[in-house]
Amino acid sequence: MNRLVVVRCPDLLDEDEGGEALRLFARVVEAVEAYCPWVTTVHPGLCSLPARGPARYFGGEDRLVQLVTEVGAAVTPVEVGVADGLFAAVLAAQGGVIVPAGGTADFLAPFPVSVLGQPDLAELLNRLGVRTLGEFAALPEAHVLGRFGSDGSAGHRVAGGRSGEIGDRHRPGGGRRAPGRATAATAAAGQSGFWGGVSDTDARAGRALAVVQDLLGPDGVMTAHLQGGRGPAQRARFVTWTGRGGHPDPSPGGPWPGQIPPPAPAVVHSALLRAELVAADGEPVAVSARGLLTGVPCRLSVEETPWATVTAWAGPWPSDERWWSRSRQRSARLQTVIGSAAHLLLVERGRWWVEATYG
Amino acid sequence: MFVAPPHRPGADTQAPEGPPPARRLDRPRDLAALARLAERTRPVSSSQARLLPVAPPLDALLPDGSLRRGTTLAVTGPGRGSDTERAADGSISVALALMAAASGTGSWCALVGLDGLGAVAAHELGIDLARLAVIPHPGVAWAEVTAAVIDGVDLVVLCPPFPPRPAMARRLVARARERRSVLVVVPGRAGWPDPPDLSLSIGEARWDGAGTGEGFLSRRRMTVTVTGRRSAARSRSHQLWLPSTTGAMADAHPAGWDRSEGSP
Questions:
Q1: Interchain proximity B243–A222, CB inside 8 Å
Q2: Domain span holding position A54
Q3: Phi, psi (rounded to 5 degrees) for A113
Q4: Strand B72-76 to strand B198-210: parallel, antiparallel, or no bridges (unpaired)?
Q5: ipTM value greater than 0.85
Q6: Closest residue in chain A to residue B145, using alpha carbons only
Q7: Closest residue, chain B, to A199 (C-alpha)
Q8: Above 80 in pLDDT, residue A181?
């Protein structure tokens, strides 16, 4: 991470129509360039320069900050700060401090998570009781990636002082933009979820579900995502609800040999239920290596309950998964009807299970 | 949806170069089309309405043709014994089918206490999985969890994991009424001690498509009977395919059946 001096002109952050602010800012940049030629404009009203070389030349970071502040202040009020990485340096400038090398994480720790400039992440973290960057940084990285995705992970690295900036779009202080655009964005966000913003309905549901997560833990609330697969259990994935949502499911429409045609079962048992399937003579029914039933299914018992008569059945649908590997699983599925009920059975290594029920 | 103005033979000869005058003349028609479009795409404003939509043919069974906000419904099937029987008796499907239209028009829904939702089936019914919160294991705090969920979503399907005490049930019903949500209870073995506003019971059900090894389960014909209080005191029955061959719900009433007649 580069050690940076950031010069922030609070009055020039918003563009005005006449371009007056931009012209003033150009003069600030010009003045600062007298001390160091590598000035980078980050944003209107915000520029940075590498600290190390100029500090050595001018006799320390204190002296450099003093000089830069003097030339800048001749044009407009400026705030100057030094820290490792752009994100921390901008916050340092706002506070007018010089953060010692390696002290970024400690410096960032007391800031609220909203300074990351990711409003939805900040709201979620707040609801989960994580209010400061220090608390956020203390979460294990692997968990952050799993729960909050790559944006959350990028914010987490910054909060821990391991990365200089989140990305181009996010900047400390969040919505410091031209006033016109800012109002448009806020209006859209407050209005409807139809165009991708967060609607009132979504926000209300989010608050209620956060209460449930408080009661049951984060994993207490799930959402389902569809994906490709053979069995009904493989075709859906349940993930912890994070309130972010919005990512449409990829079309699970590809062909899957061995997939059973719709309709799909309404209940997919989270744990397979033991079942026994026998023919009229009481002999267990099995599926042969060629994928055929060895007998005519006659009676079914689920979890040691009394035998019920199988009135109709369909299949079997063999599915030879991972046939190339040692953990090869030769299995088959069979639909069975018992009176008005219907189950999807799975047979594996000669043993029957109820995988799903057509509820 | 853009509605193109119809071609007018006279208009071309009068103003061949200028903008088509039909634009202005058809404004009422465009406005009507826009109004229809707005009707279909307004999840936020519809959440303020008094009713939640229900997909046909189930709508024909309900007193308002939709779910009245603030009410409680119970869905019972013939399965009385184990959870496996409840899972198989069609009550889960009917509860999910009640959710489909509301979910499809942007309402948030929640499913509390059902361990093992068939997400593919829910999707086939028309439920928007992105707006469905699944709380499979509410545990002993199930009533508290349900109350919290009622605060935030339009429709809650509850499969109580334990037999609710009457006071508990009444509290949840009152909460739904106050928050203008719809509570759909699938009592199963746990039961539900409070009389619901509407009670949907599943009569005979029959699966089509499977024989002795050939074919596959293609659809289920079931009879659903609705009884209620006040205006809905007279019971109505309807035959539907749930699921139909696509997984959605469809009408299965015999030819010549008059819907408005109610029960035969």
A1: no
A2: 3-102
A3: -65, -15
A4: parallel
A5: no
A6: A212
A7: B44
A8: no
